[in-house]
Amino acid sequence: MNHALIKQKYGGCSSWAIWKRRDTTQKEKSGMEDVSFFANMDTLPLNPNYIFVGLNISGKGSLERPFSNFHPLHKTAHDYKTRYALQDTQFWGAYMTDIIKDFEELVGSNVKKYLKANPDFEKSNIEVFEQELKDIGSMNPILIAFGNVSYNILNKHLKNKYKIYKVTHYAHRSLTKEKLREEILNLKI
Asked: Which of the pair, 60 or 187, is modelled with greater confidence?
């Protein structure tokens, strides 16, 4: 795996399911923004065959903080639920990305509306995603969508190529970190 290439091409919109571990004396969101360990990627337990897929980036990614998607600086984010759900599972070290690149939007229904009006944009993002899978060295990837919209896009375009699963989006208001972990542990992979 060419870490420099991945960092250059996708560092602003993707990441890996590895976070600073939180001990029980710390707040739930403590250390979520830490991406310093990505400086030594050769030593990390990365697994490019499990791919967690969100819809789109909610805030512009930064190459000054590569792999900061899913590792937010702001304390209002719900990504901590994903850290809790994946810690000490087979999915720790999975690749994480969004199916729609370069479309910063907080409201998923706005993304859905834009994609409906611009089907070529959706198709070009599928092509970028498939190249991304090749670039990270994924062999027989298993895709796990966060939420219905990303699942529907993946299923529409890629159901005949990959195994695709769905879990509730980690930002869903009523979803607890424990419930997300339960969903992930119950995936029949």
From this structure: 187
